[in-house]
Amino acid sequence: MSIPDTLYRGRFAPSPTGPLHFGSLVAAVGSFLEARTRGGEWLLRIEDVDAPRCSQAAADSILRTLEAFGFAWDGAVVWQSRRVAAYAAALEQLKQAGRVFPCACSRKELADSMLAPDGAALYPGTCRHGLPAGKVARAWRVRVDATRITFDDAVQGCIESDLAQEAGDFILLRADGLFAYQLAVVVDDAAAGITQVVRGADLLLSTPRQIFLQHCLGLPTPAYAHLPVVVNAAGEKLSKQTRAQRLDDARPGQALWAALDFLGQQPPPELRAASCDEIWRWARLHWRLDRVPRQRAAQRAEETP
Ligand code: GLU
Question: Which helix (H) or strand (E) segment is 187 a member of?
Answer without folding.
Answer: helix 181-192
